[in-house]
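Researcher: Structure prediction, please.
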Amino acid sequence: MELILFLLLGGVLFTRVGVDKSETKKADQAACQRLDWHRARLEGWRELVADKALEEDLADLISNPANYEDVWAEVHDAYLRMPSCKLFTRILLYSTMVKQLRGTTYTKKQQETIAASNRQNALDIMLARRGKVRYVNTCDGWHIKDLMPGHGESSKRAWDEAFDLWVYIRDELRRNGVPAKLIFQTGEIEEFKRTAYDVDDVEKFRYMSGSLTWLPLTNFDHNLNYV
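Model: Predicted structure follows.
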C-alpha cells in the first residue's frame, strides 16, 4: 500500500512540475512577444520622426540672434493656433532679451535658463512643422513634458500653455502625415500603476499633475491599456 501511495504521489508531483514548467514557458514567450512588440513600435516611431541633422541645423538657426525674425515668424504663426498663447508678441530666445524685459529680476544663470527653455520650445515647434521631433522624444520611457498641478491663476496658465503647445505639435505632426498619439499619464511612478488618457479627453485630467508623452514611448497600447 505504501508503495502504491508513493507512486501515486510521485506521479502527481511529476505532473505538477510539468504543468508549472509549461506555464512558465508560456509566460516567458508572452513577455518576449510584448517586448518585441514594444521595440518594433518604438523603432518605427523613431524612424518616422527623428532627424538629427535637421534638428542640429534648426538649433543652430535658432541660437543665432541674426535669425530672430525668421524664427519668430514661424513661432508666432504657431502661437496664433494655441488658445493660451495667441496673444504672445515675442519669444525670449536669448538671455539679453530676458534681461531687457526683466531687468535684474533674474540672475544671469536664470536668464539663460529661461532663454534656453524658449529656444527648446521654438525648436519643438519648427521640427513639428516639418513632421519631426527632437531625438530625445523618441527614447523609451521619456516624458516629453511634466506638468505641475494647476491651483491658482498663474499655475493654471502655465499648465494651459504647456498643454496647448504639445497639442499643437501633435496636430502639426498629423498634418505632416505622422500618426502621432499624445497621451497624459498620472499617478504612481511605476508606469504599470499609472492612468493614461488621450489628450483629447483633457477635461478628465485638466490641471492634474502628470506627464505628457508620445504613446510609443510607453507600454500602453492604442486603447491605453497597459501591456
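Model: The two ends are 51 Å apart (CA to CA).
Researcher: Thanks, that helps.
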